[in-house]
């Protein structure tokens, strides 16, 4: 029997984005099924087909793969029909691979068709394989008619068919043709056609949580029946059922948490891969209700009341049909339906809430629900809150007007919608005779007991309490003004105002003290100052207001005040900003870098107009920190050189200390040697030895100071020990090797100390100056002289012997004779050479006027051995002469040659040959 299978997986189920678009995930063709509603969804994760690898020259665009397993051999064909059969833009192609190949190694297709119906001029867009065709491949484009020859297949062979849609949008169907058969599809056997589905009550596991445990395998034997080689799996989603993924591991005990749940079953032949699917529903009957907690007032004032539990019946039953409600004191009794209570029930423990369990049961089913709620006695207490006021009405009788309602917010607490009544006595409370105007009640005794009744208007419950009202007076003591030193040097300080607490309390330690920045704030108890308090205006006195009040009675208070101020610190005056450091030389006869200093030298300047000052001096910060001052600052001998001295001023009247000041005392060595010059001489004797006058450095070493003496030594040790002094005229000892001379500078005015410096004497060898001159001439202004010399950077160059340059090149020169100087940079040797830059006139005029009568190269007379030859335009030699000649007069063998151009050859003494031409104009 042939079946039709509506295959909508790719349309309806989110399995894997490219599920059947890859060969490994191909749809397995089973039974006699034809397929309808198929959709080609993309190229998949793997592109198995490309234009270059098949005879039909196309590739995957939107594809679906089929795995065809042959049961009985024969002929295999099919007809593929697009749903949009009238839309010829819709084009389907296919390729068939096999037999018995793997997805990873399909090779070339044995059948394929990529004919485009529009381009081929067809009036249909179906395609496939049939008996009448003889070609095995066709396409692309206009090639073919959409059909190729079907294939002969053998038992148990496997083929892969891929269908692709390169153009248009449409689902498609496949109808199989031919004599070959496919493997049968497993089926779910239900011989008696029983309704499928399972129902289970909540609470089957003792927990009422709208969850139940089901045995899903209850139909398994019936479903399988007589079939063999089948596997039955259970799944929680349709996707998993279709793909066979994520089967349940324990279907015998599946926990369900929804009133209605669908279970998905898949029966698979593991040999052929063919499968069938089935579903059924799991039902957990919804039996639930709600119950309000019941609260009663403590009317009996003993915490015991009788409760009518039936007030919750309507809410518990709700919309449940055929239901009954019973009540229990424990969950176990409710589960077992034993020991029911009520419907009138008296609580057992005063003032403690109890849980009541309602059992909601459907009379026509075995399912029930348990609904807990609480019963409780509503009670509350009012704390006594006395009111104490100052007797400030002018009559010292202890009686005054009270606002009895001031504590209502505190009495209410978290209880909303309350009301209060006040009573002047206990009998008034019993007789419900409240005070008419509790906001303005004049007391009748001091103290007096008053009663309050607070009612919760939502519940009607109330409570009563008594409290006392009374009066008192407050008398503050006298606070002291507070002055602080300006230690921060900004006019701002943190004041501990609380030092005045005990003075203001004046023995009344029960009074509270608070501080304010204004009298108004103090009266209104607004904006109290935080302690410690920081003054607001630098160097400006502030008045602080003190409020003294009875504990817990902010209406009984008194106000007083005091002043806070900032005291300026002593300062180190230095009007001319002089340097405070002290220095002197070590002239006490002991060369130990120490001497007595008068540390008080600047005290008069420091003091200025200040009074009541005491100075202290410290040899170190450690001494300052422990208060170890220098005993005799007028004659203090330094202990290090240099040494920092720390000093501080104390004002004996204000008690304020200045910031710490420091200065340096230093034994200076007045002997500071200047920087001498290195001495050198040229090797005029050619032996590397010369006489040097060392005293030429005296003035530099003395650094311009008088009373200085310079002595020269051959070594540092000699200079330090004052041994082996050198004569003023000294000859170096080693030829061509620099010698270090050590100079010792001392004072002749009594200050101890010396300084040593050094310089070098050396004899410079006369260098070899090997060079060549390279010239560029025969221009009017752009001639040049270049000096080619090795180590050119060791020399300097000049054209006048006075102004030298480091560059061995001179450019932009006019023709002429130049003196070129090359001098070693130490000045020991100079070479000089005359260099001639030539040029020639472009024409001459031998016309007898005495002007420009001859032609000759400019400045060639400095090169007399140079030869000039003149030629006419035909190359004939018409004249030749030497550099010391006056030149050519335009004659040849006594005849005047005509005006025209002539050529010359100049053969210079240095070997250069210069050619050119000029004009003769008569």
Show the helix and strand layout:
Layout: E1 3-6, H1 9-12, E2 27-29, E3 33-38, E4 63-72, E5 74-82, E6 91-97, E7 111-115, E8 127-130, E9 137-141, E10 147-149, E11 151-153, E12 158-167, E13 172-177, E14 181-182, E15 198-199, E16 212-214, H2 220-224, E17 231-235, H3 238-243, E18 254-256, E19 260-268, E20 275-283, E21 294-297, E22 306-308, H4 313-317, E23 323-328, H5 331-336, E24 344-346, E25 354-362, E26 368-378, E27 387-390, E28 401-402, H6 408-412, E29 418-423, H7 426-430, E30 441-442, E31 448-456, E32 462-472, E33 482-485, E34 494-495, H8 501-505, E35 511-516, H9 519-524, E36 533-534, E37 542-550, E38 553-567, E39 582-584, E40 596-597, H10 603-607, E41 613-618, H11 621-626, E42 636-637, E43 643-651, E44 661-667, E45 679-682, E46 691-693, H12 698-702, E47 708-713, H13 716-721, E48 729-731, E49 739-747, E50 754-764, E51 771-776, E52 783-789, E53 795-798, E54 804-805, E55 809-813, E56 816-824, E57 830-837, E58 843-844, E59 867-871, E60 877-882, E61 891-892, E62 895-896, E63 900-907, E64 913-920
Parallel strand pairs: 1-3, 2-4, 7-9, 8-10, 15-20, 21-26, 27-32, 33-38, 39-44, 45-50, 58-64
Antiparallel strand pairs: 3-13, 4-12, 4-14, 5-8, 5-11, 5-13, 6-7, 6-12, 16-18, 17-19, 19-20, 22-24, 23-25, 25-26, 28-30, 29-31, 31-32, 34-36, 35-37, 37-38, 40-42, 41-43, 43-44, 46-48, 47-49, 49-50, 51-52, 52-55, 53-54, 53-56, 56-57, 59-60, 59-63, 61-62, 63-64
Organism: Flavobacterium rakeshii
Keywords: Signal
Protein name: T9SS type B sorting domain-containing protein
